Amino acid sequence: MKYPDFNQTVPIDHVGVEERVSRLNKRSIKKDSKIQALKMALSMIDLTTLEGKDSPGKVIQLCQKAKRPHPAVPDLPTVAAICVYPSMVSVAKNALKGTDINVASVATAFPSGQSPLSMRLEDTKFAVSEGADEIDMVISRGAFLNGEYQLVFDEIAAVKEACGEAHLKVILETGELHTYENVRKASDIAMHAGADFIKTSTGKTSPAATQPVTLVMLEAIRDFYYDTGKMIGMKPAGGIRTAKQAIQYLVIVKETLGADWLNKDYFRFGASSLTNDLLMQIVKQQTGHYQSLDYFSND
Amino acid sequence: MSDSRIDVKKTYKMYLGGNFPRSESGRTYKVYDGDKNLLANACQGSRKDFRDAVKIARGAFSGWSARSAYNRGQILYRIAEMLEDRRDQFMKELGPIGFKTAEAEADINASIDRLIYYAGWADKYQQVFGSINPVASSHFNFSLLEPTGVVAAFAPEKSPLLGLASVIAPIIVGGNTCVVLASEEYPLPAISFAEVLNSSDVPGGVVNILTGFREELSEHFSTHMDVNAMVYTDKLPQEMKKSIDENASLNVKRIINKPIDDWYSEEAQSPYFLTNFQETKTTWHPVGF
């Protein structure tokens, strides 16, 4: 595979990106299509708990929710994955035995990524040995902004190697990259270095995922697919809270990459509060009554 | 200035979350005075507007209910002050819809008094209706009142200002937030009252006022699962009443229906109205440790 020169910049039409997104947001999706979209979005969620206060009990509870998002509605899909810190991987793995729900783990000194490479690799190997199916890594934003693209590339490649069988999602932390050009460049670096997914944010900084940034990344994925024939997945994370936003994202994916990407193998939502809003909307579609959060579990 | 100046008519909008938006649906309906002359256009609120309003009211609930009772009393008093200040505006609005000058004056006075009445109760109802309960074991056992949550209300049809204020005050003074459907025939004073609320320290979202048709909205008012209580004071058609009661059972909403004909009377104000929107929480606390 021929690597592009990462010192070159792919020009991005800022106005065009934002214009395109706002036009796609005007699609009206109703009735059966809406129910289908809501269920699809639900099946793409990485249910996440990344807090200092995480305990085995909390993770197990989250796994229950992943398996049966809302007991009152039987024909719901399960979510795509549970996303936890490495120390909780085995707990989640156990709780999800017998399901096809993946366990994802954030490794490489999440969320800052500020520790030596050797430790980040150890972190990754530990998570994989505990049974993680997917690894979410963060790139070194400091190095990236410094122009040390080769370093960033090598680190991602090293982590990819440490992942072994596990899928690698590379978090660009777009909120810290400042420009669309940087987002595009980081996406290209990540994909060429071996990422299976590229992901917008850790969810720990603001702004997290935005639709224009997602569009830029999706276009990078499209160009990469044309170049190499390899399909890379996309995961916007952080700040997606409502069913309406989620459906807008699905429209953007459909219009940029096509229906092949509209499944949990190639598109994920890193969003926890989104789950309940999706469930509330699904129940609303079924019963005709607007719902209250009182009737949905918190985690 | 020339005499041929064209009168600038006010555009009446709804009041949601401290803002004055138009209806999401873009619909309006015509509001007439007593002589069938067009007064203004009012927004015809939709199901979506109601849903938005409930969401906003729910969002405002935790902040409002966490305020001290004393502070809520102060704010109610402030509403009364601002209403006093805007007397002229309400005189102008009540006139065309059939209030004679003296009547309009009395209506505004009574509205101000009513707000102050409930402002006074703000930090007192807990003492009167809460209690320490005698129990046989070694426990302190006390009952406290807590606000029920989001309350949906139909404002009285024939008393667009006094009736409206009398419905809103007991709901919010106890820490609830509300979504109120203004009088269908006379919605204008309700929106002016919203301007009063907006300029009197009431946090956005505590009171949300919609204008529109009862017939259309009653189902949504009563089925919404995030509404904890619903209140109306008019005699509704039997059918509507029945469907409201049935729909309310979905989430066991409280339905408060107390027909009041004369809003000036003593029976139109009572601390018991406040308790309609309160839940009693009883706590057991061991003694002797």
UniProtKB/TrEMBL annotation, chain A:
UniProt keyword terms in alphabetical order: Lyase, Schiff base
PANTHER family in the record: DEOXYRIBOSE-PHOSPHATE ALDOLASE
Residues forming coiled coils: none
Gene Ontology CC entries for this record: cytoplasm
The reaction(s) this protein catalyses: 2-deoxy-D-ribose 5-phosphate = D-glyceraldehyde 3-phosphate + acetaldehyde
Pathway annotation from the record: Carbohydrate degradation; 2-deoxy-D-ribose 1-phosphate degradation; D-glyceraldehyde 3-phosphate and acetaldehyde from 2-deoxy-alpha-D-ribose 1-phosphate: step 2/2
Entry-linked InterPro entries: Aldolase_TIM, DeoC, DeoC/FbaB/LacD_aldolase
Family named by the database record: Belongs to the DeoC/FbaB aldolase family. DeoC type 2 subfamily.
Enzyme class: lyase
EC nos: 4.1.2.4
Protein name: Deoxyribose-phosphate aldolase
GO function term, MF aspect, one: deoxyribose-phosphate aldolase activity
Source organism of the structure: Gracilimonas sediminicola
Lineage start: Bacteria, Pseudomonadati, Balneolota, Balneolia, Balneolales
BP GO annotations: carbohydrate catabolic process; deoxyribonucleotide catabolic process
UniProtKB/TrEMBL annotation, chain B:
Alphabetical list of Gene3D superfamilies matching this protein: Aldehyde Dehydrogenase, Chain A, domain 1
Keyword Transcription on entry: no
Claim: Oxidoreductase is one of the keywords in the record: yes
InterPro entries xrefs: Ald_DH/histidinol_DH, Ald_DH_N, Aldehyde_DH_dom
Sorted UniProt keywords: Oxidoreductase
Domain spans labelled Aldehyde dehydrogenase: 29-255
Gene Ontology molecular function, alphabetical: oxidoreductase activity
Segments passing through the bilayer: none
PANTHER family, per the entry: ALDEHYDE DEHYDROGENASE-RELATED
The protein, known as: Aldehyde dehydrogenase family protein
Organism: Gracilimonas sediminicola
